Automatic annotation (TrEMBL), chain B:
Subunit structure: Interacts with PRLR.
Keyword ATP-binding: no
Subcellular location: Secreted
Range of residues in the leader sequence: 1-20
Family: Belongs to the somatotropin/prolactin family.
Pfam families xref list: Hormone_1
Record PANTHER family: PROLACTIN (PTHR11417:SF5), SOMATOTROPIN,PROLACTIN (PTHR11417)
GO MF terms held by the record: hormone activity; metal ion binding; prolactin receptor binding
Organism this protein belongs to: Cavia porcellus
Stored Gene3D superfamilies: 1.20.1250.10
GO BP terms in the entry: female pregnancy; lactation; positive regulation of cell population proliferation; positive regulation of lactation; positive regulation of receptor signaling pathway via JAK-STAT; response to nutrient levels
Residues given in the record as Zn(2+) binding sites: H46, D202
UniProt-recorded name of the protein: Prolactin
Length: 512, 218
């Protein structure tokens, strides 16, 4: 015997109610005067649904599309029995359906289809809005045009800063323009032009290098100078000449000790740039500045017309030149012009101080000041004379010219520098004879721009000189303290004063 | 003698008028607040019922061991003794304040069972967190709705008498039985009854709103 009754099914009436679809669906196009036209859909609940008493609560849903559309747009209408459609395309025929469901029940079927033809000439746009948008965009365009027109230049300079040119600090172009080469050269510390035979001797001596290749370079080096030229960079450039690390004026001034501070302090906008260039050239080595720089200086500002004679304030110093490579000389070139300029420029100390502060790149104002201060007294000495503004004497009094050479590098990066003595190398006595208080410069730190911040190191004075002198010969370790040798090289290459190739060669020779 | 009679007659008339008039006549300010109270109550009751439906369906989905597994679990709800209108016509015949008292009775009857359900549900094997969370939410909203309907009752009839009656719940032992199947049946039944009673409350309140706050036609 089977079972004639099915299994029990649990049904709760409240959840299985499916009402009839809404009735009397009407469609209208309403066009209020102060608004957009809309499609107004109205309906009534199904017959048996008693929503008035509240016993049954119905919620409605509307869907519509125009004849050629594929998908329906479905809108939930809540408990209201009308619905406004605001977005539609004029000129189309629209189809509308409505359905309902109890609050906890099932959806009814869709009502009958009702359609409406929307007139084509319906004005859907809101003119006021468009006028407002047009005015706003016009105003914005005007503002932009004005901004570009009036501030375009500034913006362009902001976006594309002009390419800076090389500058030589302390270099007075006016002197050059007026043709007063004598003053110009004296500013650089040259004793006279053309250089004397002593200079030539010194130059030759100076060109001696330990490495064979250096030797080869030297002659070409000197030769190149007159030929090359001196494309002297016009100082009328911006201050930010894109020099490398070796090029910072601050670096130069501090490296060379006190004297260097002074040229920078001179507030000569145009000259400064030139000086900076020169300084950059010097970065690396500390070899006898006077000789190399002066010689090169001549080459610089002579526009290639001068020979490569080297004015040598202290010829005797160059005997033991072997340790001094050409690179050192090259590096020292910039110093000469600067020194010369410094003397030429007759500025007050205050100006100098101000300027040093303003130009100080490394931010070592203290050091600069210190150097300045020290340089002042030093002017009487042989060292830093040429950097002092008050120094009326030319840069190249034999005694005052002082070249600093790097003879030792401490492990903490301190440069032990000795001024180049007029004495020959084999002199072991202290350079006191020349009343030169040796000035040693200590590298305090290396700044971001690869600038060596130097501070005079008084404790090393007069004590290490003899040692350093002796060691100078032995050591070839006149290293460039800029970030890399390549920096110097790059810098030099850009200056046109020196032959980059020769410089690099000498550098390489040095660092081997 | 005739004067006394006149006074009596007038008193009777007055009393009759007073008695037949709802305490919140149309046009008075209390009518507006009554509508607001009803709207809020309906929002809560609708929400509570939605949660109860989900709770019941989740439980069945989680613990059902076959189609119609829980059919045999059907048993009387503890609120079955409460006489509730079967349809709209019967609903019209109930006095409004009685209707409100009925709603309060239903709401109060679920206060204790809900708290026990939440505690015991933690001991269900693999009880989903959403299950217990929903039960807790229902409990909280139920309390709020109870407070709201009490306020409505005061507005409907200031002298309404709330005895504090409620249906007593005796289903705790079933929830704690050692037999898992019995326990599951007990839970299913409780959730089913909760779903039905919350639907009744929701339905009655929506009806009463139209009757009391909108004069019978929403």
């Amino acid at each position: 015997m089977g079972i004639s009754a099915s299994d029990e099914r649990l049904v709760d009436v409240a959840y299985i109610v499916e009402p009839n679809p809404p009735k009397n669906v009407t469609l209208e196009i309403q066009q209020p005067e102060d608004g957009k036209p809309y499609l107004w859909i109205k309906w009534v609940p199904p017959t048996l649904a008693d929503t008035a008493s509240g016993w049954l609560l119905l919620q409605y849903e509307v869907r519509l599309k125009h004849e050629k559309a594929v998908e329906w747009e479905i809108y939930f209408a809540g408990q209201q029995t009308n619905f406004k459609v605001l977005s539609f395309y004029p000129g189309y025929k629209y189809l509308v359906h409505v359905r309902c469901k109890p609050d906890h029940g099932l959806w009814s079927k869709w009502s009958e289809e009702h359609s409406i033809e929307i007139p084509s000439d319906l004005n859907m746009n809101d003119e006021t809005t468009w006028i407002f948008v047009a005015i706003l965009s016009a105003v914005i365009c005007l503002v932009m045009v004005w901004a570009v027109a009036f501030k375009g230049y500034r913006m362009m300079t902001c976006i594309l800063p002009p390419v800076p040119g090389p500058k030589i600090k302390g270099f007075d172009t006016r002197l050059l323009e007026t043709g007063k080469t004598e003053e110009f050269l004296t500013a650089f510390g040259c004793q006279g032009f053309p250089p004397t035979s002593d200079c030539e001797d010194l130059l030759v001596e100076f060109l001696e290098v330990n490495d064979s290749e250096d030797q080869q370079l030297m002659p070409s080096f000197s030769k190149k100078y007159p030929g090359q030229g001196v494309k002297f960079r016009h100082p009328d450039r911006d201050n930010d000449s894109g020099h490398g690390s070796c090029d910072s004026p601050s670096l130069l001034s501090e490296k060379c000790g006190g004297p260097w501070a002074n040229p920078r302090t001179f507030h000569i906008p145009k000259v400064i740039e030139k000086l900076e260039n020169l300084e950059a050239n010097i970065t690396c080595t500390w070899d006898p500045l006077n000789i190399s720089t002066e010689g090169k200086i001549f080459n610089f500002h002579t526009n290639g017309s001068r020979s490569s004679t080297w004015p040598l304030p202290q010829p005797s110093q160059h005997k033991p030149r072997s340790p001094y490579h050409s690179t050192a000389e090259v590096c020292k070139l910039p110093m000469g012009p600067k020194a010369a300029l410094a003397t030429v420029l007759d500025k007050s100390v205050k100006d100098a101080l101000k300027f040093s502060k303003s130009i100080e790149i490394g931010g070592e104002e203290k050091a600069v000041k210190k150097m300045e201060v020290e340089s002042f007294p030093a002017k009487t000495e042989q060292d830093t004379a040429w950097l002092l503004p008050q120094e009326k004497t030319p840069f190249i009094p034999e005694k005052t010219l002082d070249y600093v050479e790097i003879h030792k590098v401490n492990k903490d990066g301190a440069l032990s520098l000795t001024p180049k003595q007029k004495n020959s190398i084999d002199q072991t006595e202290k350079p006191q004879a020349s009343e030169i208080s040796k000035e040693y410069v200590k590298v305090v730190r290396v700044t971001d721009n690869n600038i060596l911040v130097l501070v005079p190191d008084p404790r090393a004075q007069n004590k290490e000189a003899p040692r350093s002198l002796q060691q100078n010969q032995a050591e070839k370790d006149t290293s460039c303290f800029t970030a890399t040798p390549s920096n110097c090289r790059l810098h030099l290459g850009g200056s046109d004063y020196l032959d980059p190739a020769s410089l690099t060669h000498s550098f390489h020779g040095q660092f081997e | 003698g005739s004067l006394l009679l006149l006074l009596l007659m007038s008193n009777l008339l007055l009393c009759k008028n007073v008695a037949s008039q709802p305490m919140c006549p149309s046009g008075s300010s209390c009518r507006v607040s009554l509508r607001d109270l009803f709207e809020r109550a309906i929002i809560l009751s609708h929400y509570i019922h939605s949660l109860s439906s989900e709770l019941s369906q989740e439980f069945d989905a989680q613990y059902s061991q076959g189609p119609e597994f829980f059919t045999q679990a059907m048993s009387m709800c503890h609120t079955a003794s409460l006489s509730t209108p079967a349809g709209k016509e019967q609903a019209h015949q109930i006095h409004q304040k009685d209707f409100v008292i009925l709603v309060i009775h239903l709401l109060r009857s679920w206060t204790e069972p809900l708290s026990h359900l939440i505690i015991e549900a933690n001991h269900l094997p693999k009880a989903p967190d959403t299950l217990i969370a929903k039960a807790m939410e229902i409990q909280e909203q139920n309390q709020r709705l109870l407070e709201g309907v009490k306020k409505i009752s005061k507005l409907v009839d200031p002298e309404i008498i709330d005895n504090g009656d409620y249906s007593v719940w005796l289903g705790l032992p079933s929830l704690q039985s050692n037999d898992l199947e019995s326990r599951l049946f007990a839970y299913h039944n409780e959730f089913r009854c909760l779903r039905r009673d919350t639907h009744k409350v929701d339905n009655y309140l929506k009806f009463l709103k139209c009757q009391i706050a909108y004069d019978g036609s929403c």
